[in-house]
Prior knowledge:
With 843 residues, the protein is an alpha+beta fold. It contains 32 helices and 30 strands.
Amino acid sequence: MLKEKYDVTGMSCAACSARVEKTVRALDGVDDVTVNLLTNSMQVIYNEKSLNKDGIISAVEKAGYGAAVHGDDRTAPVEQKTQDEMKDKKGKLLLSILLLIPEMYISMYQMLYNHFGLPAPDFIKLMFDGPENSMAFAFTQFLLALPIALLNRNYYVNGVKALLSKAPNMDSLVGLGSGAAFIYGIVNIYFIGWHLGHGNSGLIGQYSANLYFDSAAMIVTLVSVGKYLEAKAKYSTTSALRKLISYAPKTVTVERRGSEYSIPVNELVAGDIVIARPGAVIAADGVIVEGKTSVNESAITGESIPVDKQPGDGIISGAVNINGYIKYEARQVGADSTLSRLINLVDEAASSKAPIAKLADKISGIFVPVVILIALMTGVVWLGLGYGSEMAFSMAVSVLVISCPCALGLATPVAIMAGIGKGAENGILIKSGEILEIVSKATTVIMDKTGTITEGKPTVTDVIPINISAEELIKKAAVLERSSEHPIAQAIVNGASNQNIDDITVTEFEAVWGEGVKGLIGDEWYYLGNLAFIRKFSVVEENYIRRAETLANDGKTVLYMAGSGSFIGLIGIADTVKENSATAIKKFKALGINTVMLTGDNNKTAAAMAAHLQVDKYYAEVRPEKKADFVKELQSAGETVAMIGDGINDAPALALADAGIAIGAGTDIALESADAILSKNDLLDGVRLLRLSQAVIKNIKENLFWALFYNIICIPVAAGVLYPIWGIKLSPMLGAAAMSCSSVCVVLNALRLKSLNLGQAEKISTEVSEKGAENFMEKELRINGMLCMHCQKNVERALGGIDGVESVTVNLDAGTATVKCKNDIPDDTFDKVITEAGYELVH
């Protein structure tokens, strides 16, 4: 069996993908076929002995679509084809709108003039008023509506094909309703001409009033607007793979026979010695044979802290060499490399997504044949009752016109567009309407840790001074580290941003790889690094080692510092949790959503973070392909999975998840792989997206109900069931008016989404009754060691956790914290909490 991927063009709805799949599945030799509307792709598993790719392409083309083997150089690039299709759709849509404007004005100017008193130009009245101008009035509308119908003929063609294949869809509804109105208008033109020739001017006005070219043109134009917006969003989501491929290096430097050569990366072979200078992207999986460096593997593992590498250590493709000159032996190249496997994962995950069946498409499968049957029966019954062909045709057309699927067709896209607009107002960018339906059904949310739950970069979190001020400790450390580009060094320098270190020089500086740094500041030596390094120069008391272990258990990187033979303090560094992440996770759980954290970090860091955030489950040291495996496992267990991530390493899981959601600060690949983007980098927006999606789907169901309820009431009236009893006959004109009213109701209902308050549930009441306020007391605490906003948050969190504390206000510049509490809390309690947090309470 051979598995092959094809690019398919011309698909516009779920029925199109179903038709392609059904056609290919019927071919001899096909074992399995999956068509993906989102990516315009098809994967086929077939027996190459009984079928070839030309036979598959031919079958797709006979079904009315285009196909090409994915990446086949014999055909025009699919990228260019897709862009050409988008330009073609846009051009047709703009031209349709330009023609629709005069069409609507000419058909409605008499009503606007007679009922609303709006003036009409004299030349319009001269050309179209009165029975004598009825032919010009009718034929002008026909000439304006005809090109609109031709520009949008795909609705008629695809609609008929779907009907003939016994799989009616929205195209069938649109084409049938618009076509019936158009044909009815043409018939009335003939009647106008006949009565003009016979001098029956009294009947001419009746036929002139029953022209529905404007309805025929408006239906296809409005639906085309939604189709174009959907196609545009769909195109943008499929560019993730192109971005991921472009991330890979194009050339690589290798050492062969003692000389350096720059070669295309596709010519790299296993066993080559590859040279990587600072800033270079690792081109293949391999082992370092010469040099030491630090590499940033965040693109692959999600770990923000760089990893030190030396000879004998493995290195993976996609990692970035930060600061060292190294040589490595390529072991896995081309398709076997980590980056290439990642590309294939994104490709296959995107291609395996099943298209979401629209509610309206499901309804149309029953609605369309029923309406056709009712219309035919209506005509036959009135003919059988002897009322004449004209009345029978009028009644039958009235049924088709009043059941024109404008309201049904608008029910979904109008609500979706309103929801997408509401999301954009709140910084939530939604790429397609499908994602709203999926998110509303989510049962589990998987979150990447680094850059999603956390800030994504190391920050100084703890400064523990010994016989020195915290300010002086971080200042000396920053002086030692300021010349380094290592992220941990940069975190220390940033932590001392309010200290003046530019005028301080370091002499005899030395970096001991993998251990630490040392240097002479003034006439005193200072040392900064791990415990083993510091013990060479000073004694570290056991209680500080335990203190450091506590910090490490909290997932922090701990640096020890000594000066002139004495130990002077600890510095804790970590990737800090974003401000609203804990609240967001709490609210997900309150909504009944299971929360899972995946991270490439070590288990100790992950466990500490999971305990702090109280997620339901966490998994540490997870590689990119494993993240996608977790998504698959949950889906196979019946869960609807939403994945929130930010890095290239999250792209496969984002593409495979039922709903892929990217944090706005993430990489381009993650953003393109995702179905929605939280542009404010706030995990709490994920909760807002969930609530928005639920409101939109509820609105769509309401729209569909009223659209169908309208048809259930009006179709029998249009068929004439009330005529024999009370003489009530619903003309096509009134039918069209009722159809328009139903559309207006649907639109107005959808517009209610604009008033939806997504932030209401996040508001936390801080009001206190006057009676309760009288019992509050305030204490001002002076605290040493607070240097940055993260310190401020740590102190607020520590003091806020004391039983009886109602609120905490920290003044970073003054080094104070004002605590409002219900009762008198002993100073020892404050002292203990502040010390455990890594700071010093001044008594």
